[in-house]
Hints:
Helix content is 31%, strand content 17%. With 99 residues, it is of the alpha/beta class.
Amino acid sequence: MEDINQGMLRYRSTPGAVLVDLRDAEDYAAGHIPGAVNMLPETVREEIAAIARKDTPIFLYCYGGMRSYQAEALLQARGYGQVVSIGGFDRYDGETEEA
């Protein structure tokens, strides 16, 4: 797991990358990183197939970093080779938007 601000620099410079917010819908609606797709950690394994191929770069974040780290391991076990947890939204310093 890396610092979310460094992770966002990598995300923005990675063509075709997908950004996934693993917080609950209320937290996502209150403020999230622009361009992030909201999924629950419990359903990310099933939902990710609708928006990403197994070779798609996927960047995950949650509130504190633990759920995104766990989701990273789950997706890697499913064959997603370019998935990385970038940590917790609680340490994010950049722009946000409301849903």
